[in-house]
Amino acid sequence: MTEFSPSLPGPEPQCGPESAASPWPERITVHALDPRHGDRQLSAAGEHTLMELLRDRGMSVMALCGGGMSCGTCHVHVPQPWAGRIAPASEEETAILEGCERYEPGRSRLSCQVRLEPALDGVRLAVIGE
Ligand code: FES
After folding, report:
1. What is the tens place of the pLDDT at every residue in 111-124?
2. How far does the centroid of ligand 1 lie from the alpha carbon of residue 21, in Å?
3. In Å, how far from its chain's centre is CA 106?
4. 20 to 30 A from 14, CA-CA: which of 6, 79, 112, 121?
5. Atom of ligand 1 nearest to the CA of 113
6. Of ligand 1's atoms, which has the minimum distance to the CA of residue 73?
7. Residue 84, domain CATH
8. Ligand 1: does its nearest atom lie under 6 Å from the Cβ of 128?
9. What DSSP string runs through 7-56?
10. Per residue in 33-72, pLDDT tens?
11. What is the pTM of this model?
């Protein structure tokens, strides 16, 4: 596995202040299996959604609605035990997911609705996109 080095302009996303007292790890690492790029290791510092990380690193996440929970193009599969560490999907998110071609109950999530939290450091997922 190699570190993905996108040819995107600018530094990695840096949202929100970090301090020595922050409960956040310096970086949260995500292992993403992407249909175009294969297995990639990505990382983010600060507070982001999973969609922001995947989209900004060039993964196959179109995120057409920009995180507005209306397009389903940020679809990912998150296996256990990681899926159990994410806040459950809302009824609205579930309704969007049920309309996605590769919806899998218990694994499918809209990455725009998943905050990158310390409990997800090291998460493994599959990018579905659509
Ligand atoms: S970005 Fe559109 S539903 Fe997530």
Report:
1. 999 999 999 999 99
2. 32
3. 16
4. 79
5. 4
6. 2
7. 3.10.20.30
8. no
9. --SSPSPEES---TT-SS-S-EEEEEEETTTEEEEEEEEES-BHHHHHHH
10. 999 999 999 999 888 999 999 999 999 999 999 999 999 9
11. 0.81
In a domain, 16, yes or no: no
Q: Which helix (H) or strand (E) holds 82?
A: none
- Altogether, the residues listed in the chain come to a count of 130
Residue 71 domain flag: yes
Angstrom CA distances, 35 to 62, 118, 128, 129, stand at 13, 26, 7, 9
Query: What is the whole-number distance in angstroms between the Cα of residue 99 and the centre of ligand 1?
Result: 13
Residue 17 structure tokens: 């202040």
Is 67 close to ligand 1, i.e. is its CB under 6 Å away? yes
- Tally of structural domains, the chain: 1
- The domain containing residue 106 runs over which residues? 26-129
Looking at ligand 1, which atom is closest to the CA of residue 70? 3
* 110 Cβ inside 6 Å of ligand 1: yes
